Amino acid sequence: MEHVVTAQLRTVVGKKRAVRRLRSQGIIPAVAYGPGVEKPLNIGLKKNEFLKIFKHVSESTPLTLVVTDDSGKELFKHLAFIKMVQYDKVTDEVKHVDFYIPEAHHKMRINVPIHVVGKAAGVEKGGILEVVHHEVVVEALPDKVPEVIEIDVTNLGLGETIRVKDVKLPEGVKIDLDPEDVLVTVIVPRGLEVEETAPAAETTEPEVLKKGKKEEEEEEE
Length: 221
Known about the structure:
Elements: E1 3-9, H1 16-24, E2 27-33, E3 41-46, H2 47-54, E4 63-68, E5 74-87, E6 94-100, E7 108-117, H3 121-124, E8 128-131, E9 135-140, E10 149-152, E11 161-163, E12 174-175, E13 182-187, H4 190-220
Parallel strand pairs: 1-4, 2-6, 7-10
Antiparallel strand pairs: 1-3, 2-3, 4-5, 5-6, 7-9, 8-13, 9-12, 11-13
């Protein structure tokens, strides 16, 4: 799904009173910068329109940023990512947004969240699922960046792990970690280990005793 964010070029910059006036008019001040733009663009976002989109996106969601002038003429259109969001300390409302404009056809590095799906088989047996990395740095072309990395843990048993090398990624996408780094694991509680090993000891002991008894009978004969 394409997310289009429309913004208007902003001429008022740095003046607190003027910026407060913008916010009172339902405009969120923002800036767009990065290697894909010659110089930073000071823009304004219509609060209601932006918040509708903001509910469904994250830092790794590719956006189409369209900037217009006062008359509505399109000045700029480019792939963008939300870099940073500032919130009001009292009301928790969005006060300012930074957009990052990557350079087309050049790989970028960006944080992508990990989304675990399914219930691990090991958890069903009493294990504890531990997500070691809730997000990872991904290297990819801007238009190939995945919104999330989905990891299915359904078949993950007690003491088993999913490492970076085990994750299937889209072509051209690379996780910037060692291939052996653990992403998700099922921890075996100490008490559960004792319960699993105890029966094995009990089954071997009678066999030893039985063998010993047979040897004694042979000696008596």
